[in-house]
Amino acid sequence: MKRIIKSLNKVVDVFTTTSIALFLLIVSYFLCRIFVADQFIIPTDSMYPTLHVGDRVWVNKLIVGARIYEDINSANSSTLCSWRTRGMRRVERNDILIFNYPNNDNRIAFKINYVYAKRCVALPGDSISAIDGYYKNNNYHESLGNKRAQDYLNQVSEDRLDECIKYTIPYSYDTYPWNIRNFGPIYVPRKGDVIHLDAETLLFYSKILEFETGKTFSTSSDSTVLADGEPIEFHIFTHDYYFTVGDNVMNSCDSRYWGFVPEEYIVGVVGFIPYSIDKHTGELKGNRIFKHV
Questions:
Q1: Are 140 and 126 in contact (CB under 8 A)?
Q2: Which one, of 289, 267, 272, lies nearest residue 120 by Cα?
Q3: What is the 3-state secondary structure (H, E, C) of the chain?
């Protein structure tokens, strides 16, 4: 009888120890995903050749700090309520970011699990432009993005650009006949900046103004800017924003077309590719295992 009880005690001890270890492992896994890093799958070729379709990218959250939802309902709301842990540094130009796509229903609105991977080419306070296909930043004089792709765009005449990718924000063709070869400069808003409001600034920043104030902006017959029908002359930005683009400049839906990324929409910075699965064959791509980005 004693042997049976002793054996049962050992079974209970093993079961308890295994259960605790499994529980701690599961908790550690989710804490890692929340605070340290997470993995995302690249579904399109917008970042080609840097990222390929099927790449699994490891996204470092420690660099800019992990984003923490203030309540569980915030994750499923179009209005993001969150705070960020202390990061190692701020976003830098040429970082490849994972972020929640901000342009939903033609306004800046949060949508969980709908993320993009793009390269940051302009920080808050920068002015970004494209000249003959090459990105130019007034505060950064080194190469931005994939130069080979920009070399190709440089050789494409404007009349050969496909209509669906030709024009960029603010889509005011008479005043700003911009396209992906030549646009800008576009100023990227920085928290605390004061902007004078007129019909011109409204073209570029109406979505941001509505996002930050919750009001609807328009212009009167004499070009006065109105917020919910009331005249308004200036606005102080309350968020930092970023301008992001795909390395595949000819085939990327990015800030050139829909505008700016709010800072709190950023999930993290892409670090490396643990592995990649071929979309068509389902096979592991041997040349992309633990590939540094």
A1: yes
A2: 267
A3: CHHHHHHHHHHHHHHHHHHHHHHHHHHHHHHHHHHCEEEEECCCCCCCCCCCCCEEEEEECCCCCCEEECCHHHHHCCCCCEEECCCCCCCCCCCEEEEECCEECCEECCCCCCEEEEEEEECCCCEEEEECCEEEECCECCCCCCHHHHHHHHHCCHHHCCHHHHECCCCCCCCCCCECCCEEEEECCCCCCEEECCHHHHHHHHHHHHHHHCCCEEECCCCCEEECCEECCEEECCCCEEEEECCCCCCCCCHHHHCCEEHHHEEEEEEEEEEEECCCCCCECHHHCCEEC
pLDDT digits (tens, 9 = 90+) for 75-120: 566 788 888 999 899 999 999 999 999 998 889 999 888 999 999 9
270 contacts 97 by C-beta, under 8 angstroms: yes
CB 140 within 8 A of CB 128: no
The two three-digit tokens of residue 193, written as one number: 């900046």
Confidence at residue 203, expressed as pLDDT on a 0 to 100 scale: 92
Rounded Cα distance, 226 and 199, in Å: 10
Compute the distance between CA of residue 27 and CA of residue 31 in angstroms, rounded to an integer.
6
- Sheet (strand 183-187) strand order: 134-137, 127-131, 183-187
Written as six digits, the tokens of 96 are: 């490849």
Contacts of 278 (CB under 8 A, 6+ apart): 54, 284, 285
Longest Cα–Cα distance in the chain = 97
Whole-model pTM: value is: 0.89
Sign of CA dihedral 255, 260, 266, 270: positive
Question: Mean pLDDT score of the chain, rounded to an integer?
Answer: 89
